[in-house]
Design brief:
By secondary structure, this protein is mainly β. The chain has three domains: 3-31; 43-110, Immunoglobulin-like (Sandwich); 118-248, Neuraminidase. The protein has three helices and 21 strands. The strands form six sheets. A four-stranded antiparallel sheet has the order 5-4-7-8, with no helix packed on it. Strands 10-21-20-19 form a four-stranded antiparallel sheet, with helices on one face. The chain is elongated.
């Protein structure tokens, strides 16, 4: 190898180093090229947590390698369609925004078990613990308080009061709402109409997920959650008389 060749290789290596190094530094610092905007931008993160955990994550229709809970890194700023799926449970889907250098949180993801309500061959007084029985038979079915917040309904609208003058409208319906409950640990509200029980999330970004827990019933009249919130109890009419049922939630 001649002297000129060695010098050429050395100069080429030095030039390559100075060309590549800035890109490596930018990549390590969290910058990526945004082809849609044709510019370099710093990435963001989406953090997702579901109940139960271990659910699959889909982003813009593509399955990710992670399962919940997960921190989805190196995302260019923009909106992402995120879907959480677990076999045997209802799914959750929402469009989430990502901003540079920030983390978008979705931690109140409730996945409800796909289960049919079961009849309980006993009276509520005999079948339920005192706390659940008190909730089922409470005089005011149109409000429910927990953790310094109160969920209320006037029969057609559901809202949450935070105890500090704050008011968050959750939904409005054309059918009469007969009862409301907090699904406390997951940021959801369960409500009852004359023939159906549904759960609606409080997270209002893009649109709220709504899950039907029971439908096609007659004369629904009162509901309560077990102490660990794994079971929903409710009363419906059967052959003209009230009958107690339970529905597994997870």
């Amino acid at each position: 190898m001649t002297y000129k060749t060695r010098i050429g290789i050395l100069v080429g290596a030095i030039l390559l180093f100075f060309i590549i190094t800035p890109f490596i530094i930018l990549y390590t610092a969290g910058y990526r090229y945004n082809g849609k905007k044709q510019r370099v931008e710093k990435v963001g993160i989406i953090f997702v947590r579901s109940r139960p955990a271990g659910a699959d994550i889909y982003m813009n229709g593509k399955k990710r390698s992670e399962t919940t809970p997960a921190r989805l890194r190196n995302l260019l700023p923009g909106d992402y369609d995120v879907k959480i799926v677990k076999t045997g449970y209802t799914s959750w889907e929402k469009t989430l925004p990502v901003a540079s250098e920030l983390t978008t949180f979705a931690e109140s993801i409730a996945l409800f078990k796909n289960a049919a309500p079961e009849e309980i061959n006993s009276t509520p007084t005999k079948a339920l613990p005192a706390a659940e029985l008190a909730t089922l038979n409470r005089a005011d079915q149109l409000s429910f308080s927990a953790k310094n917040e109160t969920v209320r309904t006037d029969g057609f609208e559901i809202w949450v009061d935070d105890g500090k003058g704050g008011h968050d409208t959750i939904t409005r319906l054309s059918e009469e709402i007969r009862s409301v409950l907090f699904y406390n640990d997951s940021g959801w509200i369960i409500y009852e109409t004359d023939d159906a029980i549904r759960a609606i999330e409080r997270d209002g970004r893009s649109s709220r997920n709504v899950v039907t827990l029971a439908s096609g019933w007659t004369g629904l009249d009162g509901m309560a959650l077990s102490s660990d919130e794994s079971v929903l109890y409710f009363v419906a009419q059967k052959n003209g008389a009230p009958q107690l049922y339970k529905r597994q939630l997870r």
